[in-house]
Amino acid sequence: MAMTREEFLKSSGLKVQVLELWIEQEWLVPERTPSGLRFREIDVARARLIGELQSGIGANEAGIDVILHLMDQLHGMRRALAELRREMGKADV
Amino acid sequence: MKNPYEVLGVPSTATAAEIQSAYRKLAKKLHPDLNPGDKAAEEKFKEVAGAYDLLGDADKRKRFDAGEIDASGAERPPRQNYYRDYAGAQAEHPYADASGYADFMDSDDIFADLLRRSQRGRANRRGEDMHYRLEIGFADSIAGATRRITLPDGGTLDVKIPPGLVSGQTIRLKGKGAPGFGTGGPGDALIEVEVLPDPRFARDGDDITIELPVSLSEAVLGGRVRVPTATGAVTMAVPKGSNTGTTLRLKGKGAPKRGGGFGDQFVKLKVVLPNKPDPELEAFVAGWEKGKSFNPREEG
Question: Which SUPFAM superfamilies does the entry mention (chain B) (predicted)?
């Protein structure tokens, strides 16, 4: 399931320099293992999203930074909300 | 299939810049990742993206305008997954961010409690500790050793067994566990070491005890015998007049002590008569008057 750097480059269609830049900017956070970087499917989807924000929507670097940050907060809240709903269903409040 | 000009809301005379601008406006509104809770966004976005695929490309647009291709050529292959499909899942991922509601968790009502529970250990979570078991022989537990264990993923781990290890002791290899999320760092590998029992040796703290069979003549007359220790056999003097239960000490032949130095090995003697009846021994004991009056079950 986890991909090596090479497999990720192939799967995402990113150029090496672009990948390095995105990792440096922490737009992508692959796992660091003793045998090198490991990417997951979520990283492929996130890379595709960044590409669409950049070329499709025309967001610049600062814009993408902010969008990703807010988006991850939004997903965090959605997860928390889902969790709340689950807990409340359990507790039958 | 809808007319792509209508989908983007531009006249057929629109410039490339106008088409791009129209697309961007719609994409901002409709991109599924910018609308994680809108299930219909994906369909609408697909339509807009398909229209832009056609009209955003000068060559394709020309062929469409000339009637060479129709709008169905603009249909995109169904895309598998958006970022929201992963980030919204319950599974852990490194981009999870609780800072949007962290302040809600500070209060002490039931919602804060539920939030805290759901958020616990999410973002930037340290990797799991991985647990392994390892069996070693008694001698290795005293002298120390290095063992290589094979991990489920095919990797290996070299485990240094410190001298004097006790059965059930856990060795922690920092950072050798599962990888962490975000800046959480990896977990540790915890290796519980079981010392396989050796029928000859028993361990008591830093000391080792052993029961050593000796013959009647070695017990009565004394002598030199070979005694096994954890680090190899040594020669020991059995004093004259020893008995079953006599305990002799081999200094420094025990387990290494934590603060340096070694424990001792205690050798408990056990007098053993020959297995087969021996006529000579029988004749001797029959003529041994004092022996007959000795009753070991009586005090003194």
Answer: Chaperone J-domain, HSP40/DnaJ peptide-binding domain
Is B300 domain-assigned?
A: no
- Say if B211 falls within a structural domain: yes
Domain containing residue A70: 5-91
B210 & B233 share domain: yes
Please judge whether B87 and A42 are an interchain contact, meaning their C-beta atoms are less than 8 angstroms apart. yes
pLDDT in tens, B216-248: 999 999 999 999 998 899 999 999 999 999 999
Number of domains in chain A: 1
Cβ distance B179 to A31 less than 8 Å, yes or no, reads yes
Residue B125 lies in a domain: no
B95 and A CB contact within 8 Å: yes
Q: What is the pLDDT of residue B272?
A: 94
Region label for B299, one of left (φ > 0), alpha (ψ between -120 and 50) or beta (otherwise): beta
C-alpha dist (Å) from residue B33 to B21, B114, B171, B283: 19, 27, 45, 102
Chain B hits for A80, CB-CB cut-off 8 Å, are: 98, 101, 115, 118-119
The Cα–Cα gap between B84 and A72 comes to 10
The parent domain of residue B73 ranges over 4-85
Cross-chain residue pair B82–A49, CB shorter than 8 Å: yes
Fill in the amino acid letter for B293: S
In a domain, B76, yes or no: yes
Q: What is the DSSP letter of A42?
A: H
B-chain CB neighbours of A67 within 8 Å are: 34
pTM above threshold 0.95: no
ipTM above 0.95, yes or no: no
| pLDDT, position B214 | 96
Residue indicated by tokens 């959605």: A78
Q: Are residues B275 and B261 in the same domain?
A: yes
Which of the residues in chain B have pLDDT under 50? 121
Q: What is the structure's pLDDT at A93?
A: 47
Task: Tally the residues of chain A.
Answer: 93
Out of A36-40, A54-58, A81-85, B78-82, least confident range: B78-82
Residues of B in contact with A84 (CB under 8 A): 111, 114-115, 118
Query: Cα distance from B32 to chain A (closest Cα, Å)?
Result: 10
Nearest CA in chain A to B88: A75
pLDDT value at position A1? 63
| Token pair listed for B185 | 């760092």
